[in-house]
Design a protein that fits this description.
176 residues, mainly alpha, flat
């Protein structure tokens, strides 16, 4: 019973840490963005950031939840070759869909840049990096959750928020 209480408490502590650190890094990134952008640039960047979850959803197509369930089923049956095949196929489909998202966004960028040439182009690569970070965080969460490594999954989410903030800081201070 004490072991179960300890596991629950550690899960609650790690979940709280992940939530607090994600909020902290998001808030820090928000203040950096707000203090360095004009109102027009901030509005455009905020509009572009709404594309990040959409790009990630298109790239994963909800397969992540199905993959976790399938891996857990095959783990109980000890069919590890099937798990490897599932992961390989998942990654192949994910890379293909991600390539389609980037190709579509590149075409969209060129179309929209006709109207917002000065504003849109500098933010494009930051947007691509954020979509890649979101997808990689999803992939790592899927793998950790499928193998019941929930602590690592929570730490990965915190690390992704930290890296996202680091990307914003480096983008503004080094690239301009």
């Amino acid at each position: 019973m004490a072991s179960l209480k300890r596991r629950i408490l550690s899960g609650v502590a790690l979940n709280s840490f992940e939530q607090l650190s994600t909020q902290f890094f998001s808030l820090l990134g928000f203040f950096i963005v707000v203090s360095n952008l004009s109102l027009k640039d901030f509005g455009l960047l905020h509009l572009l950031f709404t594309v990040v979850p959409v790009g990630a959803v298109i790239a994963t197509m909800g397969m992540d939840r199905l993959l976790v369930a399938d891996i857990v089923v095959y783990r109980t049956k000890k069919q590890y070759a099937t798990i490897r095949a599932l992961l390989r196929e998942y990654l192949m489909v994910l890379v293909s869909l991600l390539a389609c998202v980037f190709l579509g966004s590149w075409l969209f960028k060129n179309y929209v840049s006709q109207y917002y040439t000065v504003d849109l182009v500098p933010f494009y690569w930051a947007l691509v990096a954020l979509v890649i970070a979101q997808v990689m965080m999803t992939v790592s969460s899927v793998i950790f959750e499928a193998f019941e490594k929930f602590n690592y999954s929570l730490l990965t989410k915190s690390g992704e928020a930290f890296l996202r903030t680091l990307l914003i800081v480096s983008y503004f201070f080094f690239i301009g």
